[in-house]
Each structure stands twice: as structure tokens, then as C-alpha cells.
Sequence to fold (685 residues):
Amino acid sequence: ESADKKATDISDETASIESVDWTMHGLDEEETRFSKLSQIDASNVDRLGLAWSYDLESTRSVQATPIVKDGVMYVTSSWSILHAVDAITGKRLWVYDPEVPGDYASKGCCGVVNRGVAYHDGKIFLGAFDGYLHALDAKSGALIWKQDTLERRGEFSYTITGAPRIVAGDKVIIGNGGAEFGVRGYVTAYNVDTGEQQWRWYTVPGDPSKPFENEAMEMAAKTWDPSGKYWKVGGGGTVWDSMAYDSDLNLLYIGVGNGSPWNRDFRSPSGGDNLFLASIVALNPDTGEYVWHYQGTPGDTWDYTHTQQITLADLVIKGELRKVAMQAPKNGFFYVIDRVTGAFISAENFVEVNWATGIDQNGRPIETPGARVKSESVEIVPSSFGAHNWHSMSFNSDTGLVYIPAQGIPLSVAPDLKWEHNTYKPGSTMSGTNWNLGYLFHVAFPETEPFGTLIAWDPVNQKEVWRSEYISPWNGGTLTTAGNLVFQGTADGRFIAYNATTGQPLWQTPVTSGVIAAPITWSKNGRQYVTIAVGWGGIYGLLNKATKYATKGKLFTFELDGQAIMPKATLSTRTNLVAGVPYKPEHVAKGLELYVANCSFCHGTPGIDSGGVIPNLGYSPVGVLKNARLWVKDGIAVDNGMPAFDNLSEEDVEKIIAFVQGTADSIRQALGTQPSKSGDNSPIE
Ligand SMILES: O=C(O)c1cc(C(=O)O)c2c(n1)C(=O)C(=O)c1cc(C(=O)O)[nH]c1-2
Ligand SMILES: [Ca+2]
Fold:
């Protein structure tokens, strides 16, 4: 009975084959992103053409997996703005703006992002960046109910960036972001009709002097050192992206994130595994009770979130059919675990790693001696950007392969010995916007090179089968289909179809901007379509980009023999290295400390990072850098997400300007080039 129910959950109209919707974030409860549609296949995919394009009008990140239900496409763009679009014509039906305040942007680590909505019984559920969960009428976009998901709003920097999920027939589940800032992670279930809270499950223990919420918290507290007073900083463990659901087993799987602060030496000085950080946890979806956990990265100290996609599959392993959960988290290992019991089955690294030599038979990493950075600057591989981040993977049960958007983004880290909970200190990474890391970055330059790769991974034999290399990290999520295809958008602005078995590229088209989101496929009246939301951004995309474009967010739908014309890409207006802003050289060193504590994680290193959706200040127009006070102090761009910094004095701003101009001058000198025409607004070519 439940198997039938599952099939209809995937799409109400699947039975007719005529119209197949995409109604869940990961396509199905198992989050496979494997579509059974096969009209578009390896033999005809080269005939794909544009059916229509739609303007999302966003200048920040587009991360959403669209949802298609009854001819309507629901897709979010930055600032959690939801667009309802006629799926056949691409015409706007309605737009819902949850009106996230501009000054909320700096309460998230990685930009005002949103990964999509959930659909259930005529309602759309949207988690907005400022922590409210909205339930809307799917037809009109009218608000039905709205819930504040945040605890102690204002005291902690919580956000929502992930897509809600529907479980147990009547519950909508959402977690939060915030573990870079110091928060306590949890997931909450709300009744789909009323919005009433059903249960909340914390991922880490609270203040041990107070009663524990449940036995799981009591068990978890034994793995934390109370002398670190972790509960003051929150402890971390946000559930900011992945969940999966097995309705047969009646288990909800959640992916739990990193510790707050990142550095375990400050969070739990005597060590400990710090449950349930960096774990997959199975919960009873009816009650929110703990069932089991598997902790992939015990005692996380590297921002090794296990919030990356959890995909469920039934695999024959050593002759036995196993119900498994699969994950490729930031730490670089591909995990297969038993989803009934949480028992470890296998793990192998899918990229080069230097923090562990492998995973032992109990599922514990064998850490390398220098992996827990104690004094000098060390380059840990993978970095906290992850060997795989939130970009969706897909699992094709025909080929037996998982398609992973893998990457390497170099970062060196050193302990921040000055770190104190919620204390602004020049020199302490982003402490000016309340980050709580306990690390400094790039005290020494990292030695590895950035890379981006699509990896086709065999989860049974734990080995790579094929790969496709890209020129940049931070490529889009993947989709696979019964047409033996894999689709992926790329950081360099292409949308590509591969043969799922061999990895041979079969078709590609430019799509006006770098892509980070995942494509979907669906059909209407017997015709198959492929849709991708496009718009550069996310954490790496704040700082860097791999195209010369700054095109606003778009939504593209493709079909066989589609004839629509691809809109023109907009060139970035990035200027040359800034020159000629007067400054006092003795201000540069202090300016660096101020920059690190207030500017670095959004604007990047001046003149070194290329600038993504947030400008790199090394390429500021002269007039902008000279008048930085207007942005930094007077807050003229608060609506765009640039906060006004009360902690900075006028003189501090002068010092930051000195650091930016001084750095630009040093780089220019090192490159041996002439001073550029200042204020030049010519596009980079
Ligand atoms: O610890 C957290 O709460 C948290 C939240 C988020 C988020 O909500 O986007 C990210 C991360 N961590 C993170 O570690 C990370 O690498 C990341 C990348 C992105 C992005 O949108 O590109 N978000 C996040
Ligand atoms: Ca994190």
C-alpha cells in the first residue's frame, strides 16, 4: 500500500505519462533527482532548443530547484522572492515578496539565497531569509499563514536558506542557517494547514545547568566539554539544507552542520565528538523523536557540514539488498550508510583530502596528525568551501551512478587566538558582523589550485567511473534521466547534457551567466521539458566569478526543436585596479585588521579575488573608494544588503581605504603594469 502511495506522491499524474510534474525539491522522497522521463534521450538531446525564458530580475544568487505542479512553475530567487510562472508559456502569474529587510543580509554567511519551495495540497511553503515560514495559496499567491521559526530573534543570527520538506502527510519541516555566527541548530515541524508548531528537535545540547529537552540531548551533552560554555555561542549544528524522507520506514533524515564556533578548541576545549554536529540524524517525523545518528566528522573543527544532499537508494552490496542513505559532504568522502539502523557501510574519498587518511570500519575518520590546526597557518583539504557543497547531486538507478558537482577551493587557516564569543576585535575574522569562527584565513597562501569537476561515482564499489573537468569550482547541481542523460549548468555559464553512462558531452548552450542551481525535467501533454534557474552567487560567488557577465537571474526552459532566442548576456562593469585614492601608508596595517573583521567574507581580498556578485573593492571606481564612508557609515546601500557599521569610526574607514588602495598599488607594482585609468568603467574582456 505504501509503495503505491509513494508512486503517487512523486507526481499525481505520473500514471498517465501525459503530464509529469516535479513537485518535490529532490523530485521524490528519496531525493534522487532521477527522472523517469525519456522522451529526450542521448540520441536526440542535441535537438534541444529554448522554449522560453523568464526574467527573475535578481542581481544576487539564484539557487532554487523549481517545482512544477499542474502547469505552474514555482521558483525562488535571491531575497527569498517567489515567482509563479506558467510552465508552458513562461508568462508571469504572480510574484510573492516576503520583504526581507535589507539589513538582514549580513545575518547570513553566504548571501541572501534560497533553494526553493515545497508544495502540498494547494499550498506553497516558502522559508524566507529572515526566518519566517510562509504558507501561500498556490493559485493566487495569497498568504495563508506565516510563522516565526526563530528562537530568541534578534539575539542570534539565524536565517532560512533551504527548501522546506513535507512529511507524514501534514507536516512542513524547516531548519535554519547560522552556525558561522554562533547559534544552536534545530529543526521544526509545523502543521501544513494551521502553521501550528508540532515539534522542534535541537541538534546540540543546551545549557547543562538546565534540564535537557530529551534523552538524546543528555546523551549528546556527554560529548561536549562544558568548560567551553558552548551553549553561549550556541554550539552550532544548523540544518540549513538537506533532508530526505522514507515513508515506509517512517523516518525523516536531516543533515546537521558545523560547530559554533568553528574551532573546537574554543567550543569544547578538552575535545569530544560534539554530537550531533556533522551528522545524519534519523527522526520520527510524527513526534520529532531521535531514532539514530551517524556522525561523519566527529569533533568538527573545519566547517565540515553534513548538510549536503542525502539521497536514499536500495543497493545490492556484497550480494545483499541494502536500504541505504548516501551523502557526499564537504569533508571529501562519499558515504553509504544503512538507513534503517544508521550503521556505517562504506566511505571513500571522491577528491584528494589531507585531513584524514581514510574512514575505519566503524565509520570513524582516521585523522592526519596536523589536521586540527593548533598554531601555524595550515591548508586543510578540502577547505571549508567543501569538496561538495549544497549543489545537488543526482542518483540514476539505471546506470547505478551518483553525479556529484565536486570541487576544490583553497583556503589556509590558523587559530584566532584572540577570539572571544561575540566580541568585535579588529583582526578577528568577520567579528564586526558577529561571526564566531576562532580561525584566521590566508595568513599564509594556500598551495593547491582551485578546481571544479563533475564526478560520476559508483556507490557500490566506491569508485569514480568518469569525470568532466571545468575551468572553475562552484558549478551547478545535477539532474539525471531515464534518457541516459546527466544535465548540469556550469560556473562558466553553460548548460550541458552528458551521456550518463560514458560522460560523453552531447549538447551544450550558453546561458548568460554562471549557473549554481540544479535543473529539473517535467512533461505536459506528452511533451518533455528541461528547466534551469540561472544566476551566479552563493558563498564562492560573492567573491569570485568565472564569466565576464553580470546578467540578472533568469529561468530557461528547453524542449526538442525549441526556437526561442536566448537573451543577451550583460557584461560586468568591473573596473581596473583602483588607483590614485590618497591615503597614509602607516594606516595600511591597521586597515587590514579592520578589513578582515568587517569586509573580507563578502568583498574578498582586494585585487586577489576577482569579485562575484559583491564588488571586489580593489576594483572600486575612485569615487566610490574615496567616499566609502557613505556605504560603510551612512548605510546608503542597506537595501542592497550592505550594513551600516556602527562599530567603525570615520578614522577606521580611512584606514580601510588605505588598506584597499595600498593593496591595489602593491598588486599593480607586483604585476609591473602601468597605473590604470582611474574611474574607468570599461567591461573586463
Ligand atoms: O552553518 C551554517 O548554518 C551554514 C549555512 C549556510 C546557508 O544557510 O546558506 C551555508 C553554510 N553554513 C556553509 O557552511 C556553506 O559553505 C554555505 C554555502 C552557501 C551558499 O549559499 O553558497 N551557504 C552556506
Ligand atoms: Ca557552515
In short: The chain has ten helices and 40 strands. Residues 1-16, 676-685 have pLDDT under 50 and may be disordered. Residues 573 and 683 are 5 Å apart (CA to CA). The longest strand covers residues 48-55.
